[in-house]
Every structure is written in C-alpha cells, then in structure tokens.
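retry 2 of 3: previous attempt timed out while embedding zinc ion. Reduced batch size to 1 and resubmitted. Inputs unchanged:
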Amino acid sequence: MLRIAIQKSGRLSDDSIKLFKECGIRFESGSTGKLKSLSTNFPAEFLFLRDDDIPGYVEDGVADLGIVGENVLVESSKNVRVVHQLGFSKCRLSLAIPRSTQWNGVQDLQGRGIATSYPRILGNYLQEHGVEAEIHEISGSVEIAPSIGLADAVCDIVSSGSTLLSNGLKEVEVIFKSEAVLIGSNQLSNEKQVILESLLFRINAVQAAQSNKYIVLNSPVEAIDQIAALLPGMKAPTVVPLKTEGWVSLHSVINENDFWTNIVKIREAGAEGILVIPIEKMVY
Ligand code: ATP
Ligand code: ZN
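retry 2 succeeded.
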C-alpha cells in the first residue's frame, strides 16, 4: 500500500483531491477533521498534513508520496525526488519594494533588509547575483514588513499581485516559478514502485484528457484532406458518411492549445456544425 501525504487545508488541497478522484481513487477527504483516510478501491492511504511538513515526512519514509509546491520543496531541501509535475497551484516567488521606491535591479538591495518565508531560495538567488543583504525570516504576513519598518523589501509568493498592491508594494523581480509536484521517497520497495506506476498511468491519462478535446464536424467530401491535415488526431481522423450526398462527418482529437488557431482554418476550408467535446480519460 502507498501512503500519500496531501495538504490538509489550503491552496493545494482541492486540486490534489480532485486529481485522485479523476484517477478513480475514492477516499474521504480531510475536511471532516480526519488525519488519514484509506482508499476504498486503490491500495493507498492518504495523510492530511501541513504542506511544509510533507517533504520531511516523505524523506523519513512516513509517507511514500506527497503533493507540495516546488517552492516548499526547494526551500525544505529534503532528500526526495520529483516524480511528476502536476500543473496546478501555479505561483511565483518575487521581490517587491514600496511603490514609491525606484528600482534599477537587484543590486539595489545590497546592504538592505528583506523579509521572507523563503530564506534558502532567496539566499541562493542573492548569492548568484553577488548581492549581500540581511534576510529577515518571518513565517506569515510578510507583505506588511516594509510598512512597519522591519525591512526595505519583501520576497513573497505572488499570484495576481493584489496583496502586494493593497500593501503599497510593487513586484520588481520574479526569482522562482512554482507549481504543484508529486514527490516521492528515494527508497520505495518494488511492490510500492508497481503501485506508483499504476498511479502515474492514471495521472497521465487524466492530464492528456485535460489538454485535448474531441472534435466532430461536417465536411464537404472535397475538403476532407485539407481538414484532416489540420486535425491529425491520435492516429488519423475518423470519416463517416452523412446521409446528405457529398458530405461526411469527421471526428478527431485536438490539443486545446492548437484549437483556436486551427479552428479558423478548418471553417475556411468549408467545415460546418463544429462540436467540441471534453474528453474524460485519454490513453495513447
Ligand atoms: P499550510 O497551512 O498547509 O502550511 P500554507 O498557508 O503554508 O498552508 P497555502 O497558502 O495553502 O500554504 O499555499 C500552499 C501552496 O500553494 C504554496 O506553497 C504555493 O506553492 C501555492 N500557492 C500559494 N499561493 C498561491 C496562489 N495565490 N495561487 C496559487 N497557488 C498558490
Ligand atoms: Zn505551509
């Protein structure tokens, strides 16, 4: 059985639970105050923890796998491996200074005080840029540090920038980009490795489905080749005759990123009645 640590409540929790549900793995979530929960249909037990504790538990082998932000993983500096990128909880770690202060570059911070919850990532960044500054480690509400005179700048997580703005700060430099990752212990038994492989198979099927759409359209017979070239699909599009002479229905799969660019050309080629349908799982 695999023990999988996920955040009890916070910005990683909902998407972590959703991922396992979409993989068809059933368990009771931690919102009921439970600390752990056994899946009823997959050989896994879920542990609900604070995200900061997860890399340590995985390193110690208390948990086999865990989900954390790359920011927390790198800051923790624990001996664990990234098993899979998960693509959610995207955010960045940035330097910010009071809005009225001029910014010419990171050298401006030479000899200054910077408040952060990420002393290790910030320290490495400053060292790489040859800047010596005083790092004040604080665990929360970093953004108020300049206004209370604790620091000249902050280094904090940003997603929209609205928290910085409401504290009179401006973002001046992104120093680290983060998303959620599945981390794993370096010493999994063969049995656990086999369960991990089957979990990764499911995660890949869910992620492929999310980035692709099923597309159905009507095409004049003479436009089939031109439209098919724009919709290569997994092998080749399916072409089914319509009852109306001279027309076919063409079915294929398209990557979401290519959709808006290709759809214009597909219509120009003569396609009509274009349907775009979500895919639930996709196995190559
Ligand atoms: P805990 O109580 O578990 O210690 P926390 O308060 O430290 O939680 P959260 O604010 O829930 O952490 O953030 C968890 C992770 O989500 C962060 O480490 C980061 O990777 C990511 N994250 C943080 N802020 C955002 C945001 N605004 N948008 C998206 N992802 C974010
Ligand atoms: Zn935390």
